[in-house]
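Researcher: Next sequence.
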Amino acid sequence: MLFKGEKIFFVASWLRVGFIFLVFSPPVFAGSFQLKLGRLFAEGRASEMESAIDSRLRKDPAQLDLWLELADLRESQGDIPGAVAAYGKFLAQRDDWKISVRLALALEQMGEFAEAERDLALLSKDHAEDPDILWGLARLHWVRSQWKSLRGHASPREELVLAQKLLLKLASKKPAFALGLWQLAEVSRQLGDGDRALKAYQDLLRQDASYKSAHRQIARLLAQKGMIREALARYEKATAVEPDDLKLKKEAAQAARLAPREAQRRRDVRMSEWRKWKSPSEKPIAASATTLRVGLFTGMGRILFRGDSELRVETPSTDSTPAGRSPQAGSGQAAFQAPITILAANQEYHIVYHPAGRGKGGLESWTLNDNREKKILSFSQRIWIEPKEQGKALCLHAVPSNNGYFFAREEDRAYRGLIEISPKPGAGFSVINRVSLEDYTAGVIAAEMSASWPIEALKAQAILVRGYALSKKGRHNAEGFDVCDSVHCQVYQGLTAENPRTNQAVNETAGLVLKHGGRIIPSVFSSQCGGHTQDYAEAWGYQEPVVGVIDYDTRYNQDMEFPLSPNRMERWIKEDRQAWCRVSELKDHRSYRWAWVVTAADILKRSGPIGRVRRLIVTHRSSAGWADRLLVEGAAGSKELKGDSIRSFLGGIRSNLIWIEPQFNLKGWPEEFIIYGGGWGHGVGMCQAGAYGLAKAGKTCEEILEHYFPKGSVKKLDAFKAN
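Model: Next structure:
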């Protein structure tokens, strides 16, 4: 077999699917050598690792596990011919049809279509229902449909029809395999089979909502079917999850112009919903002497609000609590001049920024207007707005939440405490919620964890929310607030998110935080750790008493000794292994293991002047296996990504616990990168899904926190004020 041109060096494994469970004989090497390989692999010392494996294989070539280690090592470095050779050595000593499938898929990746198809066809005679074979054959037909220059094969359309048939069969066998649904949707769309494509995109989003572009494709298909109302709703979602895509915004605007009455109708319906919406009533929350400034918006030009009671508009003069005024009542902790004005209850008001050149005299200004846009007052310094009646809320209309993420949305919200409007010359105004620590905790916990979860998991979450806010207080000082309301800090949705069970968790843990050596720990958490959390220092480079822990019962995964060797790393990410966070009844349990695809063209857009993309290589991992350095190698240079930036660079993937496999075209250049992954978030501290699993197993909140923070202890805040 001949390998031509740049395919020899730059091709890498791409098609193996994460639902294979390979069955091996007990490893003939163990313990210290496996750990040595794992350490070398995590540190990116590939040449040393290959030398160590070669040395052992020269002495005893019958160590079959080492041939697989060598194959995966070479694939991770882009040496696909070397990986093929390693698979061949394995198969020369043992006939294993699953390894034969892997070899066939590697040949397919390299453009050796005839050999790959022959081998897959032979394997399918005995294993016709095997998902890997179905996937491999489907991809083979799809790739061939893109290359019109291939001779002696079916037409591009015929190839797509064959691919669709195989993908439909795969979907019936593995309905939760999101990557297969994505491919089915794309193939169906190319065939002009709009109904099939629409259903596949919708099924895909039910399985994995992180496929952002599916919203755009659904909007287009709905528009083509004349379902303008549904299409506009989907375009709204698409632009929320991809707010920086100017082409998408233009497309959405064009769709709106085709149905101006429908667009206006949607705006009218939205306003009607806001006016009918009733804010939840405030429930008692434990008192706290600590106030937090929570940034809700920056760079605003207009906002609509109302109060459940009369609203007092004031100008704060200092940040000290005046005598006789309880910080809990308004959570403002400031001295005041007399109120500027009193606003009527249940009436709409606007804060409006007027840029320079539009206002009187050409100067910029900020105004508070009534619902008829009549100016009530002008201001150039911050103002505070709070309900006169304790226990009543202030409500904001159309609050954008988590823009840029696949869970972005817009909603009306109610807030405890008071709202600060802070003018920013040349940049509109900021909206800040000043609220007590315990009220803030109540507004976060229900946004970060479902109220239906076990109470011990909710209590553990409450303790972490409180401690994290205090440990990070002031991180946004330059912007005028302590913490933001998004995933950058903690998701905070105010009174709107509160629930009796989450409030119970707040009250039963009031004043409790995690400490180490008398200091509050930065008690971070993520949605899913994928089975092993990370060290704080390895993830972010700062020394903190937060270390990585295995997130499973030690009776399981005894063959997975961390840090993991190449073959074990691939198996760990692709296999559906036992862990506390692998909980099937959770809505988002599929984030335990997932698959994603990013095109070389998208990578090129984000890479800068490095030339056509050759390969992506993880050059360093944490001891838990999470990628913390990614090398993007191009024809004219390279680019290195570090830490959390890897996730956004790869299109907003769920985590850095990844295994990358590129797909190459006939000329040896990668066109797509298939990314298999585990977990959701940064993987440091408490795993929320794991906390659910532990609580279901009967663990208390203290035991849950001891598991994830073995160096921390639950302590009461020194300045905590009990009711």
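Model: The mean pLDDT is 87. DSSP finds 25 helices and 24 strands in the chain.
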